[in-house]
Amino acid sequence: MASAEVGDNVLDGDPTIKALEERAAAVLGMPAALWTPSGTMANLIALSVHLQRGDRFLAPKGAHVLVNELGSAAWLAGGMPDPLEHDAGPGRPTPETLAAAIGPRSGPYFTLRTTLLCLENTHNASGGAVIPPHEHAQLLSTARQAGLRVHLDGARLWHAAAALGLPPAALTVGVDTVSACFSKGLGAPVGSVVAGSANFVERARRMRQMLGGGVRQGGVLAAAALVALDRVGDLAEDHEKARKLAAGLADLGWEVNTPETNIVLARVADLEVTLASLGAQGILASTLGGKVRFVTHRDLSMADVEEALRRIKAGGHP
Questions:
Q1: Is the CA virtual torsion 206, 212, 214, 219 positive or negative?
Q2: Fewer C-beta neighbours within 10 Å, C or N terminus of the chain?
Q3: Using an 8 Å Cβ cutoff, are 150 and 140 in contact?
Q4: What is the per-residue pLDDT across 32-50, written as a single tens digit (0 to 9) for each?
Q5: Per residue in 281-308, pLDDT tens?
Q6: Cis (ω within 30 of 0) for the bond into 259?
Q7: Mean of the pLDDT values across residues 208-222?
Q8: First and final C-alpha spacing in the chain
Q9: Which of 128, 82, 79, 91 is nearest to 245 (CA)?
Q10: What is residue 32's three-state secondary structure?
Q11: Band (317; pLDDT cuts 50, 70, 90)
Q12: Model pTM?
């Protein structure tokens, strides 16, 4: 980061940001990409470009754009969000549910106009659940038949790719736009991209500036993201750590999900008491959907996971 070649990315461009954008676009299988300071901004830019005021958009229940971005999809992008039930599995609807939610394509002028589908892979609130490629294709087909555009919140797309043993571009087929974060287990301290057509990125650049996301010598941040892209293959190790943690917790009587990626969710009798007890033993966790949320990452070793299980056993949890 300290030795990154930099320029003015608001005026005439920053060479390291440009290199990152070109590489990210290729990795994601998209024509062009735009660096953004955060995934929330990347999603907001995409929705702002795709939606007109009052347009209805659909997203799986609990999606990040629905519950973790402070209502910016409605407040700033002007969209009317509507959640889809997870009847195909964690984090994803069936094509039938999607088609029913879209409804008829014609009606009185005062009815809602549905124009966009937002998918999330992996689905964070569902414990990092993965959308398999064949289900992705079915949902895309249903959306296309109804004339919808599709945005993929791929903040954790790297994890989905690692879990499936596929390149990230295999999971973006057919979408109009995709966002991706470099801080989700890859080690970068900050930064995301939003990718799509060259025309989309041109419009997105203006929206990024409106939102205050234009930076000057941003190459110092893009340099870390370039390192992050070299680390996508390491994520499989984090997934293995999560499986070991989940299996160990289950052996101790915890009610846990079987992790598909690096998130372990555990249902406990008293969240507050459990978190306080874990913290007293030097085990940091958070909450999500009324459950304890453990996340494994590159700064944890397998020995650390084993030590955490030893401390939890000694503490008599849950």
A1: negative
A2: N
A3: yes
A4: 999 999 999 999 999 999 9
A5: 999 999 998 999 999 999 999 999 999 9
A6: no
A7: 94
A8: 43
A9: 128
A10: strand
A11: low
A12: 0.94
Q: Which residue has the tokens 């609130």?
A: 125
Average pLDDT over residues 267-289: 93
Sheet with 263-267: strands ordered across: 255-256, 263-267, 291-295, 286-288
CA distance 163 to 16: 29
Is residue 295 helix, strand or coil?
Answer: strand
What are the tokens at 145? 């038949």
**Chain centre to alpha carbon of residue 201:** 19
Residue 274 CB: number of other CB atoms within 10 A? 21
Residue in this structure with the two tokens 């903040």, named with its chain if needed: 155
Task: Please report the pLDDT score of residue 168 as a whole number.
Answer: 97
Enumerate residues 6+ apart whose C-beta is below 8 A from 228.
Answer: 182, 183, 186, 187, 188
User: Is residue 114 within a helix (H) or strand (E), and if so which, with residue range?
Assistant: strand 114-120
Residue 239 contacts residue 262 (beta carbons within 8 Å)? yes
Q: To which H or E segment does residue 288 belong? A: strand 286-288
Residue with more model confidence, 109 or 267: 267
Q: Please give the radius of gyration of the chain, using alpha carbons only, rounded to the nearest integer.
A: 20
Is 277 within 8 Å of 268 (Cβ atoms)?
Answer: no
Check: CB of residue 35 under 8 Å from CB of residue 225. Answer: yes
Answer whether residue 175 shows pLDDT above 90. yes
Stated length of the chain: 318
**pLDDT value of position 117:** 98
Q: Which tokens go with 277?
A: 């007890």
Tokens of 165: 């043993």
